[in-house]
Amino acid sequence: MRIALLGFGTVGKGVYEIIKKAKMQTQGLTVSRILIRSGKKKILPEMTDSIAEIINDDEVDVVVEAIGGIEPAHAYILEALNHQKHVVTANKAVIAKYLKEFTDVANKNHVKFYFEASVGGGIPWIQGLEKALRIDNVDCISGIFNGTSNFILDQMSKNNQSFAEVLSKAQKLGYAENDPSADIDGVDIANKLCISADIAYNIKISDRDRLPIFGIRNIRSEDVRYFERKGYLVKLLGLTHKLNNEYDYVVEPALMRKDSLEANTPGNYNLISLNGETIGKLDFFGQGAGMFPTANAVVQDILDIKENKQHLERNFDEKVQYDANIFQQDYVVRANFDVKDLFKDFDLIEEEQYVYVHQISVGKMHKLMDFVLEKDPRAFMAGLPDTIQKNVISNKEIVNQGVIA
Amino acid sequence: MRIALLGFGTVGKGVYEIIKKAKMQTQGLTVSRILIRSGKKKILPEMTDSIAEIINDDEVDVVVEAIGGIEPAHAYILEALNHQKHVVTANKAVIAKYLKEFTDVANKNHVKFYFEASVGGGIPWIQGLEKALRIDNVDCISGIFNGTSNFILDQMSKNNQSFAEVLSKAQKLGYAENDPSADIDGVDIANKLCISADIAYNIKISDRDRLPIFGIRNIRSEDVRYFERKGYLVKLLGLTHKLNNEYDYVVEPALMRKDSLEANTPGNYNLISLNGETIGKLDFFGQGAGMFPTANAVVQDILDIKENKQHLERNFDEKVQYDANIFQQDYVVRANFDVKDLFKDFDLIEEEQYVYVHQISVGKMHKLMDFVLEKDPRAFMAGLPDTIQKNVISNKEIVNQGVIA
């Protein structure tokens, strides 16, 4: 089986190294071509800067897209699929946006589009989820989907350092990018949660701009210390529930009890969980990023293609609607002005510089928090997932009652 | 695909219920026969007390062995395989003993023998391990493989209750058998660890009587309290390492730091971990027992057979030898007499009624502990896995040095 790598950064190099391992040499895998940027030095005989050369090479069976970003990754993946090449990628941004298109084009061309490495790196999460779905409906997915933000929160907690200090350390260690926004503002988690929900509910999440996302950019040492005194660690969670034909979806800081698995997920590890009817709660823990764990997941997909192991078929066309208000929970807010009036419709408790808002829907909370941020751009909030309750009277039902009355 | 259930206890009933689910009805699975004990009332039309009737039914594709124990399970599985029926089972005792024989007979008859549910119940552990092995050598497996013993230790810790009180509660809740020996003395864990090591190292562990196993029957509330003051929770672990062509294997109580995943594995949950060269540490957490999680894993195997998804091929004939002395760690011992002379070859620290033995090999420790138990049958010990080190000079090397000198 002949493999072309698009890109030779961390993931591309990792795949190249793993395929060269003694144990893999019996499997008949070869990297036959490597796409590099034009102008870059061709240090290996397989290297080329022509995508056309790869796409038109009839001997290439699998294309591994390891460029990252939206374009040209999107265009190259489509070209490869349309030239009857299987495609494997770890690129969550492009998958979150185009999963349905890639799947449709792959099906039309009778080839595979596999992407285990895109969520949770080396953790066999996508297949774990797909396997659970063979038997169960999955009504909750949650977890720590991003190692960089978890590393920052973990270090803030363990070393009593400020957000800025730890971020700078993470950048030096190569755990965080120079522009850390995707990791700390929750965009990376939102992509991974979107892919997971697409599969779990067999839908295509579009219109993602309206989905509630709140990152950890504003967290302070004093917040971490205060929450620890209350028995909690702060974690940046991705969370989605399904209830009948509606789902919610949120990325936000969450206060996790010290004896929870989430609170005990250290450093740059990931923890991803699902809940199914018969399987119950199932958790996957491991390295969510890094050269070899991620490359391992890419090679697992290549082996599945070679062994003709079908992944779960999805057409992403179920009628399940997003609803920001099907679940409610308690939140805690820190702002430099009095927020009590803004949240006056809810039971409030004040403690030190924090206000606890009792049983507010996720959608409502994030909307009100936008107002808070307008007045105090450094304000912070966190949810308390232990207090999550199904919203007994959803907004829609209230409207209906109004009409009936 | 027509399925025969041997046995209609917890697992058999669970499989029956899951296959009747709406989501499963599209998969074309049917339970066509159920073997019950002769004399029992046939409450369902599929029921029979004749194994011959099932074995000779050419329309049965898959036999699910859910009787438990060694015989007649072993004989029935062989008969089914020899009649070209696929076999799925959750019966760890019979697999730990006969995995190689079942695999050989299944291969000869071109049918499958699958057993995901045997280790970790609903946790996709066997496949997770098999998948890791496609790319990596796995050099460490560890975990909390038994929910009953974990429930007991968790309750002792949380409620400050005695071992006997919690055991009695677990028996009332149905978490523990009337004869709890397999769970609390480590036999159940030993079976699951044996199956895992057979697969990981591609060996057949025989001569299991000599393998070191120490259960939790002797643990006291005061031990739990003392270890907690030191920052540890006690967990009953199964643990195996591989080093070159040798492996070790132990079931024993272990002191786990409060912020470890193991210490935060509550109630009757399981946590099973592997370490691979490229994948790193990968952990699986979930319900290790119970009707539906276990039955879910059985049905997953049935679906793999239906979809012709091959599991990893193993012939269990690698030349890897058991060595009780390749790793060493610290231990703590409680006995009602002075054990310092017994352990005089090791650095010792005494504290309260406990003696810490510094860097002793697992094999040596368990041998010396046999002497301790002869004098004090209520003595207790626990390992400190944080202190594990490769035995730099193994016994074999010492012998060789002697010969050379």
From TrEMBL, chains A, B:
Its EC number is 1.1.1.3. One of its GO terms (biological process) is threonine biosynthetic process. Keywords: Amino-acid biosynthesis, Methionine biosynthesis, NADP, Oxidoreductase, Sodium, Threonine biosynthesis. GO terms for molecular function: homoserine dehydrogenase activity; NADP binding. It catalyses: L-homoserine + NADP(+) = L-aspartate 4-semialdehyde + NADPH + H(+). Residues 7-116 form the Aspartate/homoserine dehydrogenase NAD-binding domain. It is an enzyme of class 1 (oxidoreductase). Residues 124-303 form the Homoserine dehydrogenase catalytic domain. The keyword Oxidoreductase applies. The keyword Oxidoreductase applies. Pathway: Amino-acid biosynthesis; L-methionine biosynthesis via de novo pathway; L-homoserine from L-aspartate: step 3/3; Amino-acid biosynthesis; L-threonine biosynthesis; L-threonine from L-aspartate: step 3/5. Belongs to the homoserine dehydrogenase family. PANTHER family: HOMOSERINE DEHYDROGENASE. NCBIfam families: PRK06349.1 (NF004976). This is Homoserine dehydrogenase. It comes from Companilactobacillus alimentarius DSM 20249.
